[in-house]
């Protein structure tokens, strides 16, 4: 298993420096390798200088969870609250599955409306919101 750095640094300040884990699927040259993510959907050819070998002691299911965090794929547990800003549209505070409450964060209406199950549940608990 290997971790790989982003080619031009992490996309945001809060992004991890390394993403993965990945598997080396093929040595392309002495300087480059083809790597695939654990679900086998993504493959990249990268310079070996961007790779770091790691020994992992977790089950493969747990590794897929780790990898999904690296791909910015977080699952919403529920919508906790909402707020109206003076200049911004309504935003929703979400609880992320597998994270503590201190990691809750706000998302836009555009993002929240894609969360059909969580949004339906939130609207059932907050019927006055439908009228606004």
From TrEMBL:
<dbReference type="InterPro" id="IPR023780">
    <property type="entry name" value="Chromo_domain"/>
</dbReference>
<dbReference type="InterPro" id="IPR016197">
    <property type="entry name" value="Chromo-like_dom_sf"/>
</dbReference>
<dbReference type="Pfam" id="PF00385">
    <property type="entry name" value="Chromo"/>
</dbReference>
<feature type="domain" description="Chromo">
    <location>
        <begin position="74"/>
        <end position="132"/>
    </location>
</feature>
<protein>
    <recommendedName>
        <fullName>Chromo domain-containing protein</fullName>
    </recommendedName>
</protein>
<dbReference type="InterPro" id="IPR000953">
    <property type="entry name" value="Chromo/chromo_shadow_dom"/>
</dbReference>
